[in-house]
Inverse folding.
């Protein structure tokens, strides 16, 4: 099973990587480091990350900031 962990360099992300890496294939993603890079505020950057990484089974997000609200009201912007 191939798992992308976005925010893998942060406190929560590092814990996730440590907990899962002995049993799963982990792709650590960070803004400026890791196996792949992505700026979660830039849709083109996210598309580029997926093109680089290829098919995955799970995406785990451990990012530290974002918009919080009702899901049906959240947009890409």
């Amino acid at each position: 099973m191939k798992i992308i962990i976005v925010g893998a360099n942060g406190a929560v992300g590092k814990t996730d990587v440590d907990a899962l890496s002995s049993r799963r294939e982990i792709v650590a993603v960070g803004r400026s480091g890791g196996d792949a890079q992505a700026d979660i505020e830039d849709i083109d950057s996210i598309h580029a990350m997926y093109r680089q990484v290829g098919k995955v089974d799970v995406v785990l997000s451990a990012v530290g900031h974002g918009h919080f609200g009702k899901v049906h009201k959240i947009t890409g912007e």
About this structure: The chain has one domain: 2-73.
